[in-house]
Amino acid sequence: EVRLVESGGGFVHPGGSLRLSCAASGFTFSNFAMGWVRQAPGKALEWVSSINENGRDTIYADSMKGRATISRDNDKDTLYLQMNGLKPEDTAVYSCAKYYRGSRFGPTTDFHAYGQGTQVTVSS
User: Fold this and answer.
1) Cβ contacts of residue 42 below 8 Å, gap of 6+?
2) Interacting residues of 63 by C-beta distance below 8 A, sequence separation 6+
3) Residue 86: beta bridge partners?
4) Burial of 94 per CB tally in 10 Å (0-12, 13-18, 19+)
5) Which among 80, 72, 84 has a CA at the least distance from the CA of 15?
6) Average pLDDT, integer, range 43-53
7) DSSP string across 6-66
8) For the chain, how big is the Rg over CA atoms in Å?
9) 68 and which of 36, 64, 86, 93 could share a cystine (Cβ 3.0–4.6 Å)?
């Protein structure tokens, strides 16, 4: 069974930083591209960033370019999202997600599996 467990969310002031982690289990982590999505209250699910299987290819939503860094440790089956310069509009539940086997690597909100998410709140 695929399991994705996020951690690292919290409350920060505008301009602050957070590092989210996602512990994966139940599948061969290094064989799959992974991504982060977020959902703010009353808004649709939004794709944030993705990373390919070996970590050499990363892509970001325009809203996060220059402020976020996605990475992965395939030895630890863990995905990360470092976010800097956080803004109030970044407030959302952030979830990590696993691509379908064979799916095209790119921006999407259609993933095979999602974690429960971790709350990020940015406020003064």
Assistant:
1) none
2) 46, 48, 89
3) none
4) buried
5) 84
6) 98
7) EE--EEE-TT--EEEEEEEESS-GGGS-EEEEEE-TTS--EEEEEE-TTS--EEE-TTTTT
8) 13
9) 64
Kindly report the backbone phi and psi dihedral angles of residue 30, in degrees, each rounded to the nearest multiple of 5, phi listed first: -70, -10
Looking up tokens 């952030």, which residue turns up? Answer: 94
Q: Which of 61, 68, 62 is nearest to 85 (CA)?
A: 68
Q: What is the pLDDT of residues 103-116, one digit of tens each?
A: 899 999 999 999 99
Q: Which tens digit of pLDDT belongs to each residue from 7-43?
A: 999 999 999 999 999 999 999 999 999 999 999 999 9
CA angle 68, 112, 35 (to 5 degrees): 10
Q: What share of the chain is helix, strand, coil (3-state, %, to 5)?
A: 5, 45, 50
Q: Which amino acid, residue 44?
A: A
Cβ partners under 8 Å of residue 12, min gap 6: 18, 86, 120, 121, 122
